[in-house]
């Protein structure tokens, strides 16, 4: 334990601080001697180090996560994405648009997504078209997914994904957008279909979100392009990254980031085209920092 200077029964502040520094120095010397002795013992007997590391595991928020009974559980009810996964020859066809009267940041983010998602078409949003109108338009033209970027006060703050023809609808908040051009040492992406890596989508809701993202990319990635898109879920924040494998020799491989970077957080899941709410994030859900939903 550290030394608490307020508990030293000395009224003179300077003398108290001096004694505190002396005690702290002695404490550090003792700790250093103990570490040196332990290191010597562990060099002579490596099993001691293995035992210490096995028992001295630091506690994290993730390790103290509240158990969710839907982890590793199968999805309930009808699978809205089954049509895409049952047909290995089916290719995704995505329409991308923005909210009405969008400004420059929304179009800049749309350019980033068009560089990432294969087989995507951008259409400028007209004010008179509702979300259901656009979904009907897309379904009649064999689009499989609709993406709508939301921008407010010249900042992108949300994105809606609709799986066609009958939903579901997902709304995410968007933050920390960084264009690939601003990433130091970034590479240039090619037109190859990337490999998709999904991390930590473990609950029933998380698997549903994962299947949504899988539907945006073709079944067969082009591995010769060495590109990989990663969606990493950590504490219900989904971090988007894109890299290229760089093979330095026959044994070593590195990663070159291509960009862009951004973070998603699920806010709402609705059945169909923005119909009944299946799940919605509420403010009181953040009270318990150890409970996660994806």
TrEMBL record:
Indicate the segments forming the Brix domain, all copies.
92-275
Q: Where is this region: Disordered?
A: 1-47
One Pfam family cited in the UniProt record for this chain? Brix
Q: From the UniProt record, give one GO term of the biological process aspect.
A: maturation of LSU-rRNA from tricistronic rRNA transcript (SSU-rRNA, 5.8S rRNA, LSU-rRNA)
List the molecular function annotations (GO) for this entry: rRNA primary transcript binding
Question: Would you say which domain of life the source belongs to?
Answer: Eukaryota
- Comp. bias regions, Basic residues: 13-22
Q: Where is the composition biased (Polar residues)?
A: 1-12
Q: What is this protein called?
A: Brix domain-containing protein
Q: Which organism is it from?
A: Kuraishia capsulata CBS 1993
């Amino acid at each position: 334990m550290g030394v608490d200077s307020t508990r030293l029964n000395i009224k003179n502040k300077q003398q108290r601080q001096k004694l505190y520094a002396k005690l702290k120095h002695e404490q550090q010397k003792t700790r250093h001697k103990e570490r040196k002795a332990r290191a010597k013992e562990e060099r002579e007997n490596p099993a001691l180090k293995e035992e210490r590391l096995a028992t001295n595991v630091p506690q994290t928020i993730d390790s103290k996560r509240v158990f969710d009974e839907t982890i590793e559980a199968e999805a309930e009810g009808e699978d809205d994405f089954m049509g895409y996964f049952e047909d290995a020859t089916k290719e995704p066809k995505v329409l991308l648009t923005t909210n009405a009267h969008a400004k420059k940041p929304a179009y800049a983010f749309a350019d980033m997504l068009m560089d990432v998602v294969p087989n995507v078409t951008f259409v400028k949003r007209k004010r008179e078209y509702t979300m259901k109108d656009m979904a009907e338009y897309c379904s009649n033209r064999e689009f499989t997914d609709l993406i709508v970027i939301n921008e407010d006060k010249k900042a992108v703050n949300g994105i809606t994904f609709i799986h066609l023809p009958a939903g579901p609808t997902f709304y995410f908040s968007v933050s920390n957008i960084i264009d690939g051009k601003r990433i130091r040492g970034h590479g240039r992406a090619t037109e190859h279909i990337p490999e998709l890596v999904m991390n930590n989508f473990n609950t029933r809701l998380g698997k549903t979100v994962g299947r949504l993202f899988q539907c945006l990319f073709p079944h067969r990635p082009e591995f010769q392009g060495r590109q990989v898109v990663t969606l990493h879920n950590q504490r219900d924040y989904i971090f988007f990254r894109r890299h290229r494998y760089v093979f330095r020799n026959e044994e070593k491989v590195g990663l070159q980031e291509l960009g862009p970077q951004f973070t998603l957080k699920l806010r709402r899941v609705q059945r169909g085209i923005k119909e009944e709410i299946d799940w919605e994030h509420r403010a009181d859900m953040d009270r318990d920092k150890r409970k996660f939903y994806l």
